[in-house]
Amino acid sequence: MPFVKYEPKGDIAYLVIDRPEALNALNAQVLADLDAALDAVDTNTVRCLIVRGAGDKAFVAGADIAQMKDLDSAGGEAFGKQGNDVFLKLESFPIPVIAAVGGYALGGGCELAMACDFRICSDTAVFGQPETGLGITPGFGGTQRLARLVGPGMAKQMIYTARNIKADEALRIGLVNAVYPADELYAAAEKLASTIAANAPIAVRACKKAIDDGAALTIDEAVICEEKAFASCFGTADQREGMGAFLEKRKHEPYTNH
Fold first, then answer.
1. Which among 58, 121, 159, 186 is most buried, taking Cβ atoms within 10 Å?
2. Which one is catalytic: 7, 21, 77, 111?
3. 91 assigned to active site
4. How would DSSP label each residue in the chain?
5. Tens of pLDDT along 73-111?
6. CB neighbours (10 Å) of residue 162?
7. Statement: residue 53 has pLDDT above 80
């Protein structure tokens, strides 16, 4: 996978968008590599993914305008579908995914970050959906995920104006969970990922599925998702060990994913 590096580190792993000479811009090959990289993740071992960009200038500066410039409507639809298919696969990935955003996350880069479970960023990060300034709409889920994350009014303002926002504003509107000094970002991401990985992986996965499945349902329907997630944890070794350790007032043994 020439443009996406898979770097496992024990029970966490990085997916690195590695095209720094183009500020990690997304073209068809990068998207194909990201799709293949997701297939390569050993979810029996890895309990949390971190997505980042190579270099210190950009997470992903956007989709590759050079590739898009001469597309016709059918070509644009096909490129949008490729991006959406990969990002939906990332969004529904069974283990948690953290976007660690250093530098520019514009257009497809912002959309990639939004397909992750949540985002942390450096104090140098810049977010935006600049597509209307280029004569197009967001194509990889930006009109949909941004509105769900920050509300329709703020999403419409960002998209209609094509204005970029800095890290402090991204934090204020809820687009990111935390902001760190640039030289501390990836250490903070690993600490956060390791904290997640230390919890019972069956329970974490069940929580992710319940949250995601319930988001589009009524509350009456959504609590059924939670009931099924809750039930799925009982009888597992992780549940017995976690509750046993609590009652015995001791630290639990490492969870086993069983």
1. 121
2. 111
3. no
4. -TTEEEEEETTEEEEEE--GGGTT-B-HHHHHHHHHHHHH--TTT--EEEEEESSSSEEE--B-HHHHTT--HHHHHHHHHHHHHHHHHHHT-SS-EEEEE-SEEETHHHHHHHTSSEEEEETT-EEE--GGGGTS---SSHHHHHHHHH-HHHHHHHHHHT--EEHHHHHHHTS-SEEE-GGGHHHHHHHHHHHHHTS-HHHHHHHHHHHHHHTTS-HHHHHHHHHHHHHHHTTSHHHHHHHHHHHTTSPPPPP---
5. 999 999 999 999 999 999 999 999 999 999 999 999 999
6. 15
7. yes
Beta bridge partners of 101: 121
Exposure class string for 124-133: b at 16+ Cβ within 10 A, else e: bbbbbbbbee
User: Is 0.70 surpassed by the pTM of this model?
Assistant: yes
Active-site residue 226, yes or no? no
- What share of the chain in percent tops pLDDT 70? 100
Could you say which of 7, 131, 221, 241 is catalytic? 131
